[in-house]
């Protein structure tokens, strides 16, 4: 696992197009901008044989420094590499970051994305509500989910 850089933005955008074709996948420039924000952390995992980026995830710190909250901006795994634990490893690192600050973490997920919902629930997230027509242009609904803070000793 490693921190992503501007060099990775085109590959992330390519994966977004594959993973979220009916919605508004992030373009290269959106990734570059996100990578360079002071309040965000983007990580990725490479194929150990080819060095190709196969998974990515990003998180942002929100709120005041003395009571932060985190929000997962995006997470994706190359379809050819799914169901191998990559998404779980990426999520574990994002959760570790939030736990370091003793902060809760939020995300949105399509209501029809059962594999992701199952993963998130297994990691301690709970559904808070539904955002109607959240994803565009498809109009798909999203669950808002939250994992409570788990401060580290």
What does this structure look like?
The chain is α+β, with helices and mostly antiparallel strands. It has a single domain (2-147), classed as 3-Layer(aba) Sandwich (Aminopeptidase). It is built from four helices and seven strands; from the N terminus they run E-H-H-E-E-E-H-E-H-E-E. It has a seven-stranded mixed beta sheet, with helices on both faces. Strand 3 and strand 4 (69-77) form a beta hairpin. Helix 1 (9-19) packs across helix 2 (28-35). It is found in: Cytoplasm.
CATH architecture identity: 3-Layer(aba) Sandwich
Proportion of beta-strand residues: 25-35%
- What's the N-to-C terminus distance? 24 Å
Please state the overall shape, judged from the principal axes of the Cα atoms.
globular
Q: For this structure, what is the CATH homologous superfamily?
A: Gcn5-related N-acetyltransferase (GNAT)
Largest sheet: 7 strands, mixed
What CATH calls the topology is: Aminopeptidase
Protein structure class = alpha+beta
Query: Would you identify the regions where 5 or more consecutive residues have pLDDT less than 50?
Result: none
Task: Compute the average pLDDT.
Answer: 92
Output the number of helix runs.
4
The ordered string of helix (H) and strand (E) elements is EHHEEEHEHEE
Query: What's the structural domain tally?
Result: 1
**Strand line-up in the sheet with most strands:** 1-2-3-4-5-7-6
DSSP summary, beta strand count: 7
- Under CATH at level 1, the class stands as Alpha Beta
Rg on CA atoms, Å: 15 Å
Protein name: [Ribosomal protein bS18]-alanine N-acetyltransferase
Catalytic activity: N-terminal L-alanyl-[ribosomal protein bS18] + acetyl-CoA = N-terminal N(alpha)-acetyl-L-alanyl-[ribosomal protein bS18] + CoA + H(+)
Organism: Corynebacterium spheniscorum
Subcellular location: Cytoplasm
